[in-house]
Every structure is written in structure tokens, then in C-alpha cells.
Design a protein that fits this description.
Elements lengths: L1 E5 L6 H15 L3 E6 L13 E5 L13 H16 L3 E5 L1 H16 L7 E5 L2 H4 L8 H10 L2 E4 L2 H10 L6 E3 L15 H7 L6 E5 L8 H14 L3 E5 L5 H10 L6 E5 L5 H4 L4 E4 L8 H8 L4 E4 L4 H4 L6 E4 L4 H12 L2 H15 L4 H18 L1
Parallel strand pairs: 1-2, 1-4, 2-3, 4-5, 5-6, 6-7, 8-9, 8-11, 9-10, 11-12, 12-13
Helix pairs in contact: 2-3, 3-5, 8-9, 8-13, 11-14
This protein binds ligand GMT.
């Protein structure tokens, strides 16, 4: 198949999933055309069957806001037409689903049929999409999509709750490429950040308010008071300053390390003992799944799709949103004894394998077939 994938190229989970999906499909012989405004972070270098089409919006002085969606639509039309695509798969509804719909209509007027599948990732529904300034467009585009997928059952239910649609929604969970065994800890690298007796707790996110990074720092401070540890924070965003200020106010600066944005999170995970995900809401929690795949148990909030990923008492523990005492207590249950930590590491790694690429990729491929057979 020749598939166009429209995505955000950034560090966010939706872009990561879309890029990894495209790479996996290309390895299976499909021809993949990524369409977005800059090179996707996880794309890597030149590869067979992978093509990247950059959407560049010129800075015309008339516009206070550059019309990205219009330029994206034109690019989609062009790529579908000249690369002879069979199908479009758009990740994140805004504005990708509406651009795909518009491109589909333009192409129809030229006698070209192109179905599009919309994959909802979370905030496009739970935060941004239901905002009245977007809602009518999102509802329309969902209903016009040839198929809709969500990354969790929870996001599927949220979509039905917030939008007027009775379309079938396919749940296709996010995936990881599993390691054959728990990756070995790089002792030299680990020693840069902590001594042998100090557990390394980590958090990776875009530091947006929805992540509640203030809870990450609070939970860590409570853990550290009982068992001296280190907190490794990867990523950047609006609430990083808040986290930095909290660490200073709590007098734990020497225990908290901000590494900033990292393209590849696996070296961070490979020296970590525990992952914290304290989000207010999370449609899935790809960062937690990636941690589990590296053998890092997860202390998380019990919200959205996270319970579909993190198995309470097995791959980690779940607590109510904001219950930092319970999160710290659970963290200490895991890290206080070497044997418990080793058990949870193994269980986290084992549980992640339910979400292996091998299990999930065929779900997308059969949906593609279904959509193509139905037009
Ligand atoms: O978490 C974010 O803020 C980024 C966002 C995105 O769209 O890239 O992540 C969403 O999609 C990920 C991939 O499907 C999910 O794992 C995240 O849970 C989801 N974020 C939220 O729902 C807040």
C-alpha cells in the first residue's frame, strides 16, 4: 500500500507513535509518505520506502496567523495525486482531520478517491477538541473519516461523551518494540548521576500543566526523605520553571537533575529504577509504556487510559490524581527492597510485551484493508 501519514513531528506521543508506525509499515514493504512541517524527531536517516514531504508556510505579511491548514491541505492533495497514494492516516484530529477531509473533497472533484483514517491521541479530544472553538469542526471531521481509531478504551468513551458521533471507533493501543531482555544498566553512565545505593526516579514529559509536574517533585521529595534518591527529569515545557522553583524551595536541588529535551529517551530509562507519571489525564501514557519496556516500574495516577497500560501491583502502582502521599508510599514499597525492585522491573518489562509492535501492527493493517475494500 502507499500510505500518507499526517502527523506532528515533535517529541509528543502522537508524533512518536505515527513515526514508529510508519517506519514499521515501511519495513513490511508499504510505501510511507510522511507529511508535516519539519522532520519527525524519531524518523532517523534515509530509509527504503520512506518519504518525507515538508509543509512550509511562507511568512506573508498580511497574515497575523499563517494558514498552516490550507498549506497542509494543498500538500496532501499534491502528494496523493503525484505519489498515487491509496490511503491517508492522520494522527491527532486538529487540524489534520479537517485538512484530510478538505483534501479528499478537492481530489474527489478531480475524480480521485482517497479514504482517510483519523487516529485520536488524547488532548485532541479531552482538552483541546471539546473546546467550543474547535468542537463543530472536530465532530464533522470525525463523522466524515472513513475510520476512527483511539489509543485506548478510555479515549473511545471520552470521544462518545464529548462529541455527537455514533460512528464505530476502533481501539488500537500504542505499541513498543520490545527488548529481548531487560536492557543492562550502563553502570558508568549511572554513576554520573547517582551512587549505587541511590535509586534513580525519572519523569519524561512535555512539562505541560496536564502532567502535574509539581506532583512529580512532591512525590520525589517524600521518597527522598525516607530513602535518599535522585530525580532525573527529561523534557521541557511551560511548567519546568515551576518544577525548578519547587526543587529549590524544598532544598533538594542537589538531588534533582533536569536533562532537558532528549531525542532518544532509552538511555535515560536504562539507568532509571522507577518512572513517575502523575498526570491529571492521559489517554494512554506512552512514556509509561516505554519505561516498562525498559524494565522500569511505573508509579502513576489512576486516570484516563493509564490503568489500561500500568497494571496495579504488577508493573507498578496506581493512585488517585494528586494523592502524592499514596504515590510516595507505593514508590517506597518498590524501591526499599532490592528483591521487590527486581521483581517489579521484570514484571513491568513482561507486561509491556502485551503492547509489542508485533501484536499491534496487524490491527492497523487490517483496518487499512477494511477501509480500502469499502470504498
Ligand atoms: O502527552 C501529551 O501532552 C502529548 C500528547 C500528544 O498528542 O502527542 O500525548 C497524547 O498522545 C499519546 C500517544 O497516543 C498518549 O500516550 C498520551 O497519553 C496523550 N496525552 C494525553 O492524553 C494528555
Amino acid at each position: 500500500m502507499k500510505i500518507g501519514i499526517v502527523l506532528y513531528p515533535t517529541f509528543g506521543g502522537s508524533g512518536v507513535v505515527a513515526t514508529e508506525l510508519g517506519k514499521a509499515l515501511a519495513l513490511k514493504g508499504h510505501q510511507i509518505h510522511f507529511i508535516t512541517y519539519s522532520q519527525p524527531v524519531r524518523l532517523g536517516s534515509f530509509r527504503e520506502n520512506i518519504f518525507y514531504h515538508e509543509v512550509s508556510v511562507s511568512d506573508y505579511p498580511l497574515f497575523d496567523f499563517q494558514p498552516y491548514e490550507t498549506v497542509l491541505t494543498s500538500k496532501i492533495v499534491d502528494v496523493v495525486k503525484y505519489e498515487k497514494l491509496d490511503l491517508l492516516h492522520v494522527h491527532y484530529a486538529i487540524p489534520h482531520a479537517s485538512a484530510a477531509f478538505m483534501a479528499k473533497e478537492i481530489l474527489k472533484s478531480q475524480g480521485i478517491k482517497i479514504p482517510f483514517i483519523t487516529t485520536l491521541h488524547g488532548t485532541d479530544i479531552t482538552l483541546v477538541g471539546k473546546d467550543p472553538s474547535f468542537e463543530p469542526v472536530i465532530t464533522f471531521c470525525l463523522n466524515q473519516s472513513d475510520a476512527i481509531t483511539t489509543v485506548s478504551e478510555s479515549l473511545k468513551q471520552d470521544t462518545y461523551k464529548h462529541f455527537e458521533t455514533n460512528r464505530e471507533i476502533h481501539v488500537i493501543p500504542n505499541f513498543i518494540i520490545p527488548f529481548d531482555e531487560i536492557p543492562k544498566v550502563d553502570a558508568v553512565k549511572r554513576a554520573v548521576y547517582a551512587n549505587e545505593s541511590e535509586p534513580i526516579i525519572c519523569h519524561i514529559s512535555n512539562f505541560r500543566p496536564v502532567k502535574r509536574v509539581e506532583d512529580v517533585v512532591s512525590v520525589f521529595a517524600k521518597i527522598n526523605a525516607q530513602k535518599p534518591s535522585k530525580l532525573l527529569l527529561a523534557g521541557d515545557g511551560p511548567d519546568r520553571v515551576l518544577a525548578e522553583r519547587m526543587a529549590r524551595d524544598l532544598g533538594i536541588c542537589n538531588r534533582v537533575i533536569f536533562v532537558g529535551k532528549v531525542r532518544d529517551t532509552s538511555p535515560v530509562l536504562q539507568i532509571s529504577d522507577l518512572f513517575l507519571l502523575t498526570s491529571e489525564t492521559e489517554s494512554f501514557g506512552l512514556a509509561a509504556l516505554e519505561a516498562m519496556a525498559s524494565g522500569v516500574p511505573v508509579i502513576s495516577s489512576n486516570t484516563g487510559g493509564i490503568p489500561e497500560v500500568n497494571k496495579n501491583g504488577f508493573s507498578g502502582y496506581l493512585s488517585n490524581v494528586g494523592d502524592v502521599d499514596d504515590m510516595a508510599k507505593n514508590a517506597l514499597r518498590i524501591i526499599s527492597f532490592e528483591s521487590t525492585l527486581a521483581l517489579f522491573k521484570k514484571q513491568a518489562w513482561e507486561h509491556s510485551k502485551h503492547f509489542s509492535l508485533e501484536n499491534i501492527l496487524p490491527m492497523y493493517e487490517s483496518l487499512y484493508e477494511e477501509v480500502l475494500n469499502s470504498i
